[in-house]
Amino acid sequence: MKVTILQSNIAKVLGTTSRVVGSRTTLPVLSNILIKAEKGKIKFSATDLEVGITTGTIGKVDEEGEITLPAKLLSDFVMNNKDESIEIKTEGTAAELKSSHFEAKIQGIAAEEFPTIPEVPNAEPIIIDKSLFVESLKKVAVAPATDETRPVLAGIYMVIDDDNLTLAATDSYRLAEKKIKLKSKFASVKMIVPSRTINEVLRILSGKSDAEIKIISADSQISFLIGDTHIASRLIEGSYPNYVNIIPASSKITVKTKHSELVSAVKMSSLFAKDTANNNVKMMVGKSDLSILSAASQAGSAKSKIEAEVSGGELGISFNARYILDFLNVISDDKVTLQFNDGTTAGVFRSEKDPDYVYIIMPLKLES
Amino acid sequence: MKVTILQSNIAKVLGTTSRVVGSRTTLPVLSNILIKAEKGKIKFSATDLEVGITTGTIGKVDEEGEITLPAKLLSDFVMNNKDESIEIKTEGTAAELKSSHFEAKIQGIAAEEFPTIPEVPNAEPIIIDKSLFVESLKKVAVAPATDETRPVLAGIYMVIDDDNLTLAATDSYRLAEKKIKLKSKFASVKMIVPSRTINEVLRILSGKSDAEIKIISADSQISFLIGDTHIASRLIEGSYPNYVNIIPASSKITVKTKHSELVSAVKMSSLFAKDTANNNVKMMVGKSDLSILSAASQAGSAKSKIEAEVSGGELGISFNARYILDFLNVISDDKVTLQFNDGTTAGVFRSEKDPDYVYIIMPLKLES
């Protein structure tokens, strides 16, 4: 293989691919990026066996071929290089890199040892507006379980039904659900996408100017297509819990408060809650205010009081402070709405701007 | 004690003091900040037993007294607090903190358990222009030893002789020396200041607008006074090596090159040098260019070539890349001058802008 690529173009494709590379992997080739030159097109691929990314760039192809090179060393060489273009020429399983000021020889691994990244399935794609998809994914991506005790909970549940897309995630302590109206109808499908994959999709989308994303699923695989970048991932097998019953149908007490003030109040009390199990803070809904108390710990205790519009009565209820902050971090409202029935049933957290989003937190046992 | 202080003022004094606090300390009171209210003045102090910092702020003193409070929790409470002022009231060894939205009770430790920070010695201060002192300290603070094998090398050597101040540091592999002309004559003194102290002084000076710094030393202690902030430190005992003989009196070969190009070239080759002991890179001085080669390692090798004005002949010499980058990072010249005699004696690195600064690196053994 012999190719010449603009430094800025290699930097871009390495930025897209190199994060997927496993750093503590037992299979050395997974630390490498696959570079493949074929029919005037140069493709860069990386995979950690769960998620695979392939993206293309233009360049001069003098000789077709392929090789895998260590992602870290290749990225360091390219990012530190301010020359206009870089030539990559293979010599067995090594590559010579040349630009006007710099030369390097990097030892690689034969392309044959690189795992196959699944092709894009030959099926009808679901087309979604990119910025709506990103905004929606972020709102649910805070909620999946981070451990693998129940594998299905470590994913984002995606349901397509006609022109409705529902995204949901829960770690069984809190739940986030977001509904999206699509521009046209698509075949019904239910998928559980690993949250690791969703985080990669979000990262890559944030650097792309494309207006749309295409999603294609088949045979327990899912593909996300953004321009000429393809993210392929396995789906999580199993059936997602029927979470809809957890969302309270009605609420007695409604509390409206300023977003920024609630953030400060919860943060402040959670500083003192760190010692206690579950990062426990207690909300006291008053007649026209909301107090956040930290459970007293050895280090001390704190109390924050903010103004609130309250209807339906007073209440005391305890939550994990981190779950409240996760919700507050993903919405951009000036005001937020909290809904409760009593101190032992789920609290409902809502964004006024986005009525199609709901966030539920299970209360902690009230301390006596 | 009962005091009320503006939030912005507490934030400022905690910023100055709280970095000195030991986090993994076996003496719990060292994790605390001492707050002392006396005669309408409020003082905050922190110490790790080597360096002690005391700084003052204004506030309303309703009741004199003192207490120590955990630096981390106190800082978190103050930094997250956007209210205008905070009241601190002691109750035994605890303190109640109150502002318009927040209340906290923080458990502290009695002030009597806090170590004494030495008073400012009653001697004539040396007065130095602040920005000149900062710029000069930075240029030598890269060179002291980071281990304690030879305690004197873990410090910055400061020599006052009439109106001359000399700063020097060496870890025995490289040496930095900077001379400063003072505005008046002072009594002669030689001191070795722990580099930990110098780093604190630099950090604190960077946030201060004062034009001058005062230095007072007595009884193997040194005090730095900046406005109403006092940094007290022990001095390192022992005699500093007679380093002057290490600086080559003359050089056969002179190389002038662009600062930015040398930075890129050394960085690039050092990427590949990481595997090799000592971060070894080889400089090849040509007729009108300078090449930087990495020693070939398992991962690969690199070569960078930049233009240079060379006089006195060609040469090959090996250095630890990090030592070269340390020099390049502290100077702000467009061009740098390198001087050599042969491949086995010290290389001299100079800034054109600052003829009073010299940086020496001992070469590594050339590989055959």
Task: Write structural notes for this entry.
- 2 copies of one chain form a homodimer.
- Chain A is 18% helix and 45% strand.
- Chain A has helices spanning 7-17, 71-79, 130-140, 195-206, 259-273, 321-330, and strands at 2-6, 32-38, 41-47, 51-57, 60-63, 65-70, 85-91, 94-98, 102-107, 126-129, 155-170, 174-194, 212-218, 221-226, 229-234, 253-258, 280-285, 289-294, 300-307, 309-311, 315-320, 335-340, 347-351, 357-361.
- Chain A is α+β, with helices and mostly antiparallel strands and 368 residues long.
- The radius of gyration of chain A is 25 Å and the shape is elongated.
- In chain A, strand 8 (94-98) and strand 9 (102-107) form a beta hairpin.
- An 8-stranded antiparallel sheet of chain A has the order 6-2-3-4-15-14-13-10. The first copy, chain A, has a 7-stranded antiparallel sheet with strand order 11-12-24-23-22-16-20.
- In chain A, helix 1 (7-17) runs antiparallel to helix 2, helix 3 crosses helix 4 and helix 5 runs antiparallel to helix 6.
- The relative contact order of chain A is 0.11.
- The first copy, chain A, has 3 domains: 2-113, DNA Polymerase III, Chain A, domain 2, CATH 3.10.150; 126-244, DNA Polymerase III, Chain A, domain 2 (Roll); 248-361, Roll (DNA Polymerase III, Chain A, domain 2).
- Strand 9 of chain A pairs antiparallel with strand 19 of chain B, so a sheet runs across the interface.
